[in-house]
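Reopening this ticket.

The earlier resolution said the output was attached, but the attachment link was broken on my side. Pasting everything inline this time so it's all in one place.
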Amino acid sequence: MILGMTGFAERSFASPSLRLKISVKTLNHRFFDWSYKGAPLGEAEGRLRSLCEKMIRRGRVEVFVDLTPLGAAGWDFSLNEGLLEKVLRSLDRASRRTGLRLEISLDSLFRVPQLIEVGRKALGPADVAFVVRSFQRILEDVLLLRRREGRETARLLRKHIAAVRRSVARAEAHFRRQPARFKARIEKRLADLNGGAAVSEGKLAEEASILAQRYDLAEEIGRLKTHLDSFEAFLSPKVVEPVGRQLDFLAQELNREANTLASKSQDIRITRESLAIKNELESIRQHVQNIE
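Inline output:
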C-alpha cells in the first residue's frame, strides 16, 4: 500500500492519575528522523520512538507531549530547611537592629531561589503504559491520513504513467517507420549526387541499415517499457513494504532513458515525444518525494 509522508494529529487523553495532550506531525524526509519536545518522559520516550519506527518507516516525525499529574502523589516537593533557617535568622537580626517587626510572606518565600523545589515524579509502570497506548492511538490517526494521501498520490502517478506509456507507444511507432524514411532520404541524396540516375536497391539497403544501426532506439524503448511495468507493480495495493525509494530510483532511470531517446533521435516527432515523457516524469518525481 502506498503511504504518503505528511500528516498531523492531536488529541487529549486522561487517566485517574494523568492528563495528556499529544500532537504528532510527519513530514518528508529521506530517512526516519525523530524529533521530541515537551514533558520529560525518561525511558518512556525510547518506547514511543521504538513504536513509531515500527509504524512509520520513513519521514520526519515531530512529537509534542504535554503531561500533567492529576493528584498530589504525582508531584515531588522539597524544602531546603537550612536555607530557610538562614533567611529567618537574617530577618530576626534585621528586626532587632531596626526595631521594626520584619516579616516575609509565603509567596515571597516561594520566590527565594533553591528554597523550594516542586517537580513531577518519574512515571510509574502504569502511567508509562497509558502514555504508550495513547501515543499509539495518535499514530493510527496519522497513518490514516498518510494512507489517504498515498491513495491519492498513487492515483495521480498512474495517470502520469499512462501518459508516459502513450508517448512511448507513439515514439515506438515513429521508430518502426524510421528505416523506410532513411531509405527514401538516402535514395534522394544519392540520386542528386548521381545527377538523377537510379540507385541500386542493394546500395540503398546498405546505407539505410548503417543509419538504422546508428540511430537504433529499440533498447531505450524496451527499457522504458520495462521500467514502466516495474513502476506500476510497486503501485499495487498488494505491496506492503515502503516503496518510495524504489519509485524514486525508477523515476531517475526513466528520465535517463528519455534523455538518451532525445539525444539519439533523428526524427522531430520522436524528440517531441521524449520531451513529453520528461515533462510527465518531472511531475512523477515530485509526487514520489512524498511517498514513504
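Reporter confirms the inline version is readable. DSSP finds nine helices and six strands in the chain. The longest strand covers residues 59-69.
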